[in-house]
């Protein structure tokens, strides 16, 4: 009989990896796990409670907010506030950064950037959705009030990052820069249990994930890479298969396990890319790099991109190392950009 290890036990155990750790980061990860369970409960019974559909409000990206976007946002922010380790939250659903003001959180050492509900377009149709989170140390001193500048840090500054995928089972996958581990929620004990230790993404894969509906608007390099994936060539296991769920977390989770590449390039509608650097691209790039994969904007490593705005967008090529290298090669050849532009978008 295998011994079950819960997320809480694992986090405490791994704390030993950080000699100066006082448990603050561990408690912060615990708080995120608690909020994830509460959100999971609502998602699981979404059809039975009044949580489906539009909230009637629009977020800073101009997207109409779903009731579950709002619900998830409130649950994560409230768990972080009462936990006391986080002093400021940047969320997809809040235009401004959210100052956490509880007695404890004022002195919190950490900043959390979050996409509370990823894949919102899939909520009503019972397709996997997710949550992404990114954790940084604050830059302002605890005697000062934290502010937006605390969030404008490169992805390389992340101390931890992860995601939750609410699918056929619910999993929490995270890294603190020492590998990637996955935990499956066991509803019978209400605990995330270690199910995928030391996750590694295969260096090669046969899955490509991109919304081909926008094909005509893609840069030439992306078009060439799609054609490359579709060529018949037994030796290189092509044609690859196309899989696109439309929830970045779910597409990425599949590719992390099976091998594959996820691409969201620039399009006419999103000349800077659609996905948000701070709370979508950076946390997933940290995970994939820690699992042995790559994440770039076609030219530059996602984690090295300068962050100037909380809701900054970027295009992204992420997944199995050799597939991302191939896509980059196509971009260099067919959609070259001057290095100065590299950190914006291609
Ligand atoms: O419908 P499109 O343009 O392919 O976009 C799908 C992408 O947009 C997203 O839904 C954006 O995330 P949100 O749902 O958090 O806004 C990603 O999860 C997904 O990969
Ligand atoms: Mg999202
Ligand atoms: Mg979202």
From TrEMBL:
An example Gene Ontology CC term for this record: cytosol
GO process terms (BP): fructose 1,6-bisphosphate metabolic process; fructose 6-phosphate metabolic process; fructose metabolic process; gluconeogenesis; sucrose biosynthetic process
Keyword list, A-Z: Carbohydrate metabolism, Cytoplasm, Hydrolase, Magnesium, Metal-binding
A Pfam family per the record: FBPase
Names of required cofactors: Mg(2+)
Pathway the protein takes part in: Carbohydrate biosynthesis; gluconeogenesis; Carbohydrate biosynthesis; Calvin cycle
Gene3D superfamilies for this protein: 3.40.190.80, Fructose-1,6-Bisphosphatase, subunit A, domain 1 (3.30.540.10)
Principal subcellular localisation of the protein: cytoplasm
Cofactor note: Binds 2 magnesium ions per subunit.
PANTHER family: FRUCTOSE-1,6-BISPHOSPHATASE-RELATED, SEDOHEPTULOSE-1,7-BISPHOSPHATASE, CHLOROPLASTIC
HAMAP family linked to this entry: FBPase_class1
NCBIfam families linked: PRK09293.1-1 (NF006778), PRK09293.1-3 (NF006779)
Record protein name field: Fructose-1,6-bisphosphatase class 1
Organism: Pseudopedobacter saltans (strain ATCC 51119 / DSM 12145 / JCM 21818 / CCUG 39354 / LMG 10337 / NBRC 100064 / NCIMB 13643)
Lineage: Bacteria, Pseudomonadati, Bacteroidota, Sphingobacteriia, Sphingobacteriales
């Amino acid at each position: 009989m295998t011994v079950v290890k819960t997320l809480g036990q694992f986090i405490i155990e791994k704390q030993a990896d950080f000699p100066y750790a006082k448990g603050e980061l561990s408690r912060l990860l615990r708080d995120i796990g608690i909020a994830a369970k509460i959100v999971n409960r609502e998602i699981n019974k979404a059809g039975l409670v009044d949580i489906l559909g539009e909230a009637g409000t629009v977020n800073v990206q101009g997207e109409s907010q779903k009731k579950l976007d709002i619900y998830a946002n409130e649950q994560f922010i409230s768990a972080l506030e009462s936990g006391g380790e986080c002093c400021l939250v940047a969320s997809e659903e809040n235009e401004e950064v959210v100052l956490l003001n509880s007695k404890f959180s004022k002195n919190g050492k950490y900043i959390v950037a979050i996409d509370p509900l990823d894949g919102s377009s899939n909520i009503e149709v019972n397709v996997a959705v997710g949550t992404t989170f990114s954790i940084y140390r604050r830059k302002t001193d605890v005697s000062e009030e934290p502010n937006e500048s605390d969030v404008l840090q490169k992805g390389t500054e992340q101390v931890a990052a992860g995601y939750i995928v609410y699918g056929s089972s619910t999993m929490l996958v995270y890294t603190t820069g020492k590998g990637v581990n996955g935990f499956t929620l066991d509803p019978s004990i209400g605990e995330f249990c270690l199910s995928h230790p030391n996750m590694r993404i295969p260096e090669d894969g046969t899955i490509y994930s991109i919304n081909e509906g926008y094909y005509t608007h893609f840069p030439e390099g992306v078009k060439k890479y799609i054609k490359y994936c579709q060529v018949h060539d037994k030796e290189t296991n092509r044609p690859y298969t196309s899989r696109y769920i439309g929830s970045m977390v779910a597409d990425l989770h599949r590719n992390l396990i099976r091998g594959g590449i996820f691409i969201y390039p620039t399009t006419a509608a999103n000349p800077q890319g659609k996905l948000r650097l701070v709370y979508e691209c950076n946390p997933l790039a940290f995970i994939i790099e820690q699992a042995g994969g790559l994440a770039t904007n076609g030219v530059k490593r996602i984690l090295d991109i300068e962050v100037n705005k909380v809701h900054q967008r970027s295009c992204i090529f992420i997944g199995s190392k050799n597939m991302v290298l191939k896509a980059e090669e196509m971009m260099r050849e067919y959609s070259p950009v001057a290095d100065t532009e590299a950190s914006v978008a291609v």
